[in-house]
């Protein structure tokens, strides 16, 4: 059974940083692709970044240059370093497991399992 558990969200002022983590069980993160999504109130869930088996990353334009995803294979854990945070980054952040690593970028239809999410709040 695949499980993903996020933690490390919080509240910061604009310009601050946070580093949520995603602990994965039931699959080996170095052998698959893992995305991060986020969902703001009354908005659709949107993709933030994907990291592939080979470590290649794809970022949403809105976070390029500010967010960095990494993974600690021995701990089967991913991290999302978020710098220069803006109020518009306020959302619940989710990591997920895909059914397949091929297909439309940031498609929620590819997701087999979601984490429970971690809240990030950025004040101006």
Explained architecture:
The protein has no helices and eleven strands. It is mostly beta strands. It is 0% helix and 48% strand. 30% of the residues are buried. Strand 7 and strand 8 (77-82) form a beta hairpin. It has strands at 3-7, 10-13, 21-25, 34-39, 46-51, 57-59, 67-72, 77-82, 91-98, 111-114, 118-123. It starts with a strand and ends with a strand. The radius of gyration is 13 Å and the shape is globular. The strands form two sheets. Strands 2, 4, 5, 6, 9, 10 and 11 form a seven-stranded mixed sheet that branches. The chain has a four-stranded antiparallel sheet with strand order 1-3-8-7, with no helix packed on it.
In short, what is this structure?
By secondary structure, the protein is an all-beta fold. The protein has no helices and eleven strands.
Low-confidence residue ranges: none
Structural class of the helices, strands and pairings? mainly beta
Please report the distance between the alpha carbons of the first and last residues: 40 Å
Number of strands: 11
> What does the oligomeric state look like here?
single chain
Order of helices and strands: EEEEEEEEEEE
Strand content range: over 45%
Give me the Rg, rounded.
Answer: 13 Å
What characterizes the major β-sheet?
7 strands, mixed
List the total number of helices.
0
**What best-fitting shape do the alpha-carbon axes yield?**
globular
Helix content: under 10%
Mean pLDDT: 96
């Amino acid at each position: 059974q695949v499980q993903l558990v996020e933690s490390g969200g919080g509240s910061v002022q604009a310009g601050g940083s946070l580093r949520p983590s995603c602990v994965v069980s039931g699959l080996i993160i170095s052998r698959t692709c893992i995305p991060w999504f986020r969902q703001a109130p009354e908005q659709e869930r949107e993709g933030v970044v994907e990291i592939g088996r080979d470590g290649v990353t794809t970022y949403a334009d809105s976070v390029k240059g500010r967010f960095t995803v990494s993974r600690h294979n021995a701990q089967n854990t991913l991290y999302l370093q978020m710098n220069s945070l803006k109020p518009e980054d306020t959302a619940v952040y989710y990591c997920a497991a895909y059914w397949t690593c091929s297909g439309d970028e940031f498609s929620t239809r590819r997701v087999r399992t979601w984490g429970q999410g971690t809240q990030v709040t950025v004040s101006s």
